[in-house]
Amino acid sequence: MRIDIATLFPELMETYLSESIIGRARKNNVFELKCHNIRDYTEDKHRRVDDTPYSERQGMLMQCQPIYNCFNEVTKDRNPHVIYMSPQGKTLTQKRAKELAQMNDIFILCGHYEGVDSRVLDKIVDEEISIGDYVLTGGELPALVLVDCVVRMLEGTLSQTDCYEDESHYSGLLEYPQYTRPELWEGEKVPSVLLSGDHAKIAKWRREQQIITTYKKRPELLEKCSLTHEDLAIIHKLNSGENL
């Protein structure tokens, strides 16, 4: 997979994208990523990339030409899927991240100031993605969230696929509780089933805990999940107030 990010702050992006799991995957060529400074493509001698909007709104708006120049130069003879990080976009979900992880070429545009001239968005953008119903200073943080979410599902990023397949939202349910050493801490013990070595019982416990955790924290997610008779029985007990 190749990912290009057009931004006013490439150094900021590089700091995060060169560290930890994502940084290691990048160094190991699991994916290719390049950050491009939009200012490098302006035709203004002062490297200006913004101007006042044609409205009474305060603030500055990013201009079309620097962005378009950057896009054309970076994507020569290529046809990437272009994403604009925007609070107006559809909210990022694990399902969409899985779909994006199947793509070979992605170009991410990070807006700033009051946003971007709509004409260049109409011309090059395939979809807008939001990470939540709130507004940030720019698209850099959302772009980092998107890249992290997508790249960790690429083969070779994590040691095993179950490192992410068991996580919250991958299957539509929240993750089960996790424990590590010591076995006893502040009078609280690790659930005995996890010490049993019985993989079938552990798998059953994990599924039960996923249902319970989702029921308590994000019950609306259960409406979209494919549930078994055993799952429904657990939910019925929870609705009845029974202890599990």
Task: State the share of residues found in helices, binned by percent.
Answer: 25-40%
Mean of all residue-level pLDDT scores: 94
Strands of the widest sheet, in order across it, are 2-1-6-5-7
In total, the number of domains comes to: 2
Order of helices and strands: EHHEEEHEHEHEHHEEHH
Strand content: 15-25%
Number of helices: 9
CATH superfamily of the largest domain: SPOUT methyltransferase, trefoil knot domain
Structural class: alpha/beta
Q: Globular, elongated, flat, extended or rod-shaped: what is the shape?
A: elongated
Descriptive overview:
- The protein is α/β, with parallel strands linked by helices and 244 residues long.
- It has 2 domains: 2-151, Alpha/beta knot, CATH 3.40.1280; 166-239, tRNA(m1g37)methyltransferase, domain 2 (Trp Operon Repressor, Chain A), CATH 1.10.1270.20.
- It contains 9 helices and 9 strands.
- The protein has helices at residues 10-17, 20-27, 64-74, 94-100, 118-124, 140-151, 162-165, 199-217, 229-239; strands at residues 2-7, 32-37, 50-51, 61-62, 81-91, 105-110, 127-130, 184-185, 188-189.
- Strands 2-1-6-5-7 form a 5-stranded parallel sheet, with helices on both faces. A two-stranded antiparallel ribbon has the order 3-4. Strands 8-9 form a two-stranded antiparallel ribbon.
- Helix 1 packs parallel to helix 6 (140-151) and helix 8 (199-217) packs across helix 9 (229-239).
- The longest helix is centred in the last third of the chain and has 19 residues, at 199-217.
- The protein is elongated and about 70 Å long.
- The two termini are 44 Å apart.
